[in-house]
Amino acid sequence: MLKPTHSRTNSTGSSRHSRQNSRDWEVMPDVPPDNHKPDQTPEMPGICEGFLLKKRKYPLQGWHKRYFHLEKGILKYSKTPQDIFKGKIHGSLEVSLAVMSINKKSRRIDLDAGDNIFHMKTKNHEMFYIWVTKLSAHRVYKKNEAMNHHQGVLQALSSGTNSLPAVASFAQRSMNMPSMVSRRNGLSRGRMDAFHGTPTPSLARHHNRQVSVTESVAEYYDASEVLATESSSENEASDESGLSDITTTSVSSAHDVPNNVPKDTARRRTLPAHCADNSHIGILSILYNNIGKDLSRVSMPVALNEPLCFLQRLSEELEYSHLLDIANRIDDPYERMVYMAAFSISGYAWASWRNRYKPFNPVLGETYESIRNDRGFRFVSEQVSHHPPLSACHAESENFTFWQDQRWKNKFWGKSVEIVSSGMVNVTLPRYGDHYEWNKAVTCIHNVFSQQRWLEHYGDVIIRNTKSDVCTCKMTFVKSRYWGSDTSKNEVQGVVLNATGEVVHRFGGSWHEGIFCDTLSTPQCLWKPNGQPEDHFLYYGFSDYARELNELTPELQAILPPTDTRFRPDQRLLEEGKVDESDRRKDEVEEKQRDRRKELAKKGEEHVPRFFYKSLDEAGREVWAYNGAYWKTRENPGFANTKNLDLW
């Protein structure tokens, strides 16, 4: 087993508990398959089944009891053994395609297949070792099986055209493999034949065409990998979300809907330099050394960053604030809730183009302001805690007040990075006295080591009006399936319910294309994102709005506090394309933060945020509220005339 080693962290103050958790995780090595002759069948390990604890698909909702069944290299689970027998499978994956990591102390077994992650826990250590042993045996079995068929096909092809029946035989035998044929995949045998290009009697009519057979077999092996990956998609959303009966309406008419977002803001439309090349970064070793650990505590090379920080990322959620302006003018509470839902979804639109780089982690005391006269709001944010990392923000407009404090956790599970936020988003509408609050979906970057990496959001989001129980909104960000069309990806489904739980409105679409509601008096597209600049790939995937966030004009330079992100030297150097210099300055900024913490510790003091304070919300949860001091200080006496933290 491979034990993770230490990597440099952005703080020497990491808790003992966190360090211990990192040491406890081990990555199970990929055992090379045994050598088999093509006519031999690998020895099949026995079935392993029983109840285990499984982490809920949408994190921060604890663990639940599920029945797991491992057979022929395929791990399936459902609620009961009877459900497994009836074929009512909640999720499955092929264990040989997954990275397997274990934690002996907590009896944890994690399987990351790239497009899906299983987090499992056993009741006792005896069951833990049984499952680890069985999973390892099935992983070897599937690799041997694949090698067996692969070698057989190669041997058949190397024999020339007379080996066509042998090739057909191997393809047919492969077609009959249990892991390849599944009614849950909705593929009939005839469709499988057509899909794989299985040799049929017509093959004899085209036997001097050996290339066709070769292409057919190659297509089969490519397809088998895709099907195996697809079979690992979890289907819990259908029986846990309560939205399985909703049919999402197409948003193809979105381009006909006028967009209230201003097109010309007189701000910059490009960056000083193209995005940094990070293909040389050994991200594999960095991530594997920190499997199961919160990556927000791990210092990454600056070339993996985009020239924005999390404080600025929070302000991106207000790009489509006109939806809140509209909501504040709608008398009907159910329709108003629909627009609140559209706004909450719009905050994820940036993610479609931003899976190659990560934002900078703000240092303690770092701030960011954004005054958007074009959109009628002003925004301020501050990093109020370092461990755990916590960013608080507040925005105000004549039509709304928006605030949140976000506790970010980034976890690596072998092939995927999961980004979890535990804070609530809040919006008040002054005209009606409404106070809406909602949680955030989970963000996951799949296949992080592949050029085909992709990002998705998934989970249930509930919007409540704390001032009224007239209606609530429930949305599901649907987990994508690998083997699915592009039109089914990034899907969002939602309903607005009245006080008795009856559906008043249904809406749906995708978080990267638009949201449509056909239950309004006039069916319409509620929202669609602005088009991306043609050169977005050269500039970190930034939209026009994102390119404006780090702009530092002479007017701003004279007004902003020195703690503002736009003065952060490592981020500014990266934006200018000076990667090596940025990396050096990043180390200096992080070291300076550590020195400040040591000085405070010597004095027995703690950092006190300047513009936010800790309090309890109406539900008794700990939150960070805005104290109103930022804009007052900015106006009089001005930050140049006050004492400010020296962060850089």
From TrEMBL:
It comes from the Eukaryota. PROSITE patterns: OSBP, PH_DOMAIN. The keyword Cell cycle does not apply. GO terms for cellular component: cytosol; endoplasmic reticulum membrane; nuclear membrane; perinuclear endoplasmic reticulum; plasma membrane. InterPro entries: OSBP_sf, Oxysterol-bd, Oxysterol-bd_CS, PH-like_dom_sf, PH_8, PH_domain. The keyword Cell membrane applies. It is found in: Cell membrane; Cytoplasm, Cytosol; Endoplasmic reticulum membrane. Residues 244-253 have a biased composition (Polar residues). GO terms for biological process: bile acid biosynthetic process. One of its GO terms (molecular function) is cholesterol binding. Its main location: membrane. Coiled coil: none annotated. Residues 1-44, 177-211, 228-267, 574-603 are annotated as: Disordered. CDD domains: PH_ORP3_ORP6_ORP7. Belongs to the OSBP family. This is Oxysterol-binding protein. It comes from Denticeps clupeoides. The gene is OSBPL7.
